[in-house]
Structure formats: structure tokens, C-alpha cells
User: What shape does this take?
Amino acid sequence: MMMVSEGGSLNLCFEKMKEMKMEGLVITEWKDIPVELLMRILSLVDDRTVIIASGLCSGWRDAISFGLTRLSLSWCKKNMNSLVLSLAPKLVKLQTLVLRQDKPQLEDNAVEAIANHCHELQDLDLSKSLKLTDHSLYSLSRGCTNLSKLNLSGCTSFSDTSLAYLTRFCRKLKVLNLCGCVEAVSDNALQAIGENCSQMQSLNLGWCENISDDGVMSLAYGCPDLRSLDLCGCVLITDESVVALANRCVHLRSLGLYYCRNITDRAMYSLAQSGVKNKHEMWSSVKKGKFDEEGLRSLNISQCTYLTPSAVQAVCDTFPALHTCSGRHSLVMSGCLNLTSVHCACILQAHRTHTALPHPAH
Assistant: This one.
């Protein structure tokens, strides 16, 4: 019997079950345990133990096939590709699969195996898969059309053609991380996302330096439910992008503009004005006790050196969830030395309270 060094011991678990007296059930071997009970055990052990269990007997394989919905192989430091190839046919009910790597291991044939067998997959993390090519995205387009969350950050070999193709078939995407996918993320790719992924809520385009206002405006018009957008390092975008987002994406909660050095006060005032325009919706949420969920809650304007204090203060005043106070930095302004006078409502209120207190001498 195989033993496990992490996540407990399958052998110990088996011995304890043999000691249990269950009506009409005698357990002498693994195959005697009902699949339902094996599925319950799988939900309690770690992912390494699940992999070992898959090789014990047909009962475990059935339990994994019928009951396993989430699996992470990020702990696998070598031979991940072979492991995925052997496991994929058994994971027909899988909904979440994490294949994040420190060193590139995963290859196109493994992703193809996932696409061929894991048709219920909704959440897939392929971050830092430097060996993957367009073939992987074409495979996912064919076999994993239920994807709602996809992490491709650091995958540098995809083209914008394959990404655009993916969006035509994976139309349920709500969360997409493309940070560092410089070749894949172009204005054409963003236009495809805007046309095909209207449910998109969170999009990371960090350091995709080839995109311009045209691409971001396509997103703004095509993805009105966008809640979080990271444009850090997108050096070509200007105020036009922010104005479009402010006017069209009324549910926007988080916006990253780090190192977008073409951004000026006009962008900030457009954000502030959008908040005022949607104030009736915000007050409606206040009455329901959901005020903190409405309006911008996170804004990164670090290294946006053209901004002035009055414009940024207007944004801060409009969205009370933006904080500059210690421990709650949701308005990040690193590298903007001219913005040191900008403060959130918390600091201003604390200052008023302090100055209103009578001096001990009086």
C-alpha cells in the first residue's frame, strides 16, 4: 500500500475505515469502499494525495472521474506535462485546474488533452507557460467553451490571431489575465474581446505596450460590466481611454494606470464626473447597506506625472472608498511628488476632529 508524506496517509485512512462498523458493509480492500465515500475522502485530502489515489484501484479512479471538480498541480516541479497527459482522461468533471509553473513545463499536447476531456472546465490557470503556442488556444477554443476564468499571464508566445479566435468560442469569459502577453494583446485582440465577451468583468492587460486608445475604447463599448481593468505599463494610451471607460463602464471598481504617462487631468475629471452622474445609483446602494461596493475602490496612478492635485482630489472626493491613509492605500500615487497634498476623507475628517478639540490650556 502506498503511503503519503503530505496531506496525511491513505493507508491510515483505510485502516480506520476497516475498524468502522457499517451496516451491511465489510471493508477488506480499497475496492470495497463505495464510490460516494471515496469522493468524500477526496474532498478532504490535498492534491498530491489525490494523484496518488488515482493509481491505487479502479474505485479511486472512478471517484476522481465522477467527483473531482478542482485540482492544482502547481506543486509539481517537474514532469507536469506527463502528469497532465495521464490524468486528463480521468478528469471529465473538472471545473477548476491550476497549472501555474515556476519553470516552464507545460506543452501544447497537455493543453490539447485537457481540451479533449475536460469539457466542464470553467477556471484554468496556465500562467508562466512559456512553452505554449497558438495551438493551445485553438485547442481550448474547441474543447473548453465553458471557461469563465482564464489566466495566461506571462505566456509570451501567443499571437493576437489565436487570442481573437479564442474569444469567438469562449464567450462566457468573465475574468481574463493577459499580463505580459505582449504579442497576443493588440488593438485587434481587444476589439475581438469587446465583440465576443460582453460578460467580461476583470481584465489584466499589464505591460501590453502595443495597445492604444482604439483597443481600450473597443473594450469600453463592448464590455459594459467591466469591474476591474489593469492597464499598467500601457504607454500608448491617453485620456481618451479613461474617458471612454468612465462613460461606458459604470460598474468599474478598480483601474490601474501605473506608468501611463500620457494621462492628464482630463482623465481624472472624467472619472469624477462619472461618479457624480451615477450618484443616484450609489445612494440607492447606501440605503441597501452596500455603499462600499459602489464606485471606484482602487486606483493606481503611480508615475502619472502630468496629474495635478486638484484633479486627483476631485476623484478622491467623489469616491469615498479611495483611501490614502495608512494601511488602506487604495489610491496609489507613487512617484507623483506633486500629489502629496491629496488626501482621502478619512485623513481630512481626522484633521477636522483634531483641530476642533479644545487646547488643554483653555
